[in-house]
Specification:
Length: about 400
């Protein structure tokens, strides 16, 4: 049986650990991998698990400065030497032994699966340890050390790809990836997030459209706090599919931060796992429609580590394997028992939150009309007014 997807995973990735009490608890990665195994998604035949080595600094230097890489290396050997000028040793990004190696391996994992997908060796790739979208060329930021998506995109550009689309549905703006390719018309970066007026990193507004020679290559949907499934999916479908269809990417890279969930402690959106799965399913379908199925899916934020992240990312893995998991599927008892034993917490009973009807959530199509009294519609219209003309699209119809 041909391998359907390459999945980046090794237990050693739990070494990406900022310490006790930090929101970016690596147990969320371990629980995701264990849930995938419990559901049979890591069985041999349809999946290939990728265990990346530590890459040379030349790979990281595609998007990060040599001074920054050296600062990470110093902090990796001696955390007490972490230099805050590079965002290291801060509350968000405390240094730890080995921080360089594990961060670099995550970046290499995303690059490796992107290479395999681009070369046609495998249809899809997933790195749920990746999606570290806040890392900047010269600084760590927002729990992110090396920008794995940026590394992969730059490698793809250097290897003949002419149109790459990056879609980020994390609750926080995908600022690092946008910054790295802001002036490059070959890279479309799209981010749907809670507005930067109330949430870190304070960026990602509709008027941020790309550099002078790349206008329209950056697209931002800045949503008001409290948006739930219906509004979130309406905003997503009103902007993402039409622009992707106009751009016609050759490969699609997506970031699936799960912190848009209603129980996440670090954001203020109100989205369910059911809706997150629908968005992932739509992106997967678009990869087949637009670029021959060339799809690389990444993790990202998500700080409700038992109730949300493992289910959200296991759904992404299932979609990549063409073994979609129904939201009505019971969570395996073995995984729930393990969670109770290790975490002292009752795990969710099913793979969804019960907000959908057989996996379906009904939202109003943009073709049904714009409601100026609705905060989501106003946010969507600002994005469409700013970005759609650069892609030759109609403001009022999809």
């Amino acid at each position: 049986m041909a391998t359907q997807a390459r999945i980046v995973w090794d237990d050693s990735f739990t070494a990406y650990d900022f310490g006790e009490g930090h929101p970016m608890n690596p147990i969320r990665l371990d629980l995701t991998a264990r849930l995938c195994r419990a559901l049979g998604l890591f069985d041999e035949g349809e999946v290939e698990l990728v265990v990346p080595d530590t890459p040379d600094d030349d790979l990281l230097a595609r998007v990060h400065s040599a001074e920054y890489i050296e600062a990470v290396r110093r902090a990796s050997a001696d955390p007490s030497s972490a230099d805050p000028r590079f965002g290291l040793g801060t509350e968000d990004d405390p240094a730890f032994l080995g921080i360089h190696d594990v961060s670099a391996r995550i970046a290499e994992g995303t690059r490796a699966v992107a290479e395999g997908v681009w070369r046609g060796e495998v249809p899809h790739g997933v790195n749920f340890a990746g999606g570290l979208h806040h890392a900047m060329p010269n600084t760590a930021a927002g729990f992110c050390i090396y920008n794995d998506a940026g590394v992969a995109i730059d490698w793809l550009l250097d290897n003949g790809v002419e149109r790459i689309a990056y879609v980020d549905i994390d609750a926080h703006h995908g600022d690092g990836v946008e910054r790295m390719f802001y002036k490059d018309p070959r890279v479309l970066t799209m981010s749907m997030h809670e507005t930067g007026t109330v949430l870190f990193p304070g960026t990602g507004f509709p008027g941020d459209l790309g550099g002078p020679d790349a206008l329209g290559s950056s697209v931002n949907i800045a949503l008001p706090p409290g948006v739930g499934d219906v509004g979130w999916l309406r905003a997503f479908h009103a902007v993402v599919p039409p622009i992707l269809r106009a751009f016609r990417p050759q490969i699609l890279i997506t970031q699936h931060g799960a912190d848009s969930h209603y129980s996440d402690p670090l954001a203020h959106l109100s989205v369910s796992v059911d809706a997150q799965r629908i968005a992932a399913d739509t992106l997967h379908d678009l990869s087949h429609e637009l670029c021959g199925g060339k799809w690389v899916a990444l993790g990202g934020g998500g700080y409700e580590i038992v109730q949300v992240v493992p289910r959200a990312w296991t759904h992404v893995v299932g979609l990549a394997l063409h073994r979609p998991i129904s939201v009505d599927t019971e969570v395996p008892a073995s995984w729930r028992d393990d969670v109770l034993t290790r975490m002292g917490e009752e795990a969710p009973p099913t793979m969804g939150d019960g907000t959908s009807e057989k996996g379906r959530i009904w939202w109003r199509s943009w073709d049904a009309g714009f409601d100026p009294e609705d905060a989501v519609d106003r946010a969507v219209m600002k994005t469409r007014e700013a970005a759609f003309p650069h892609h030759g699209l109609d403001l009022w119809f999809d």
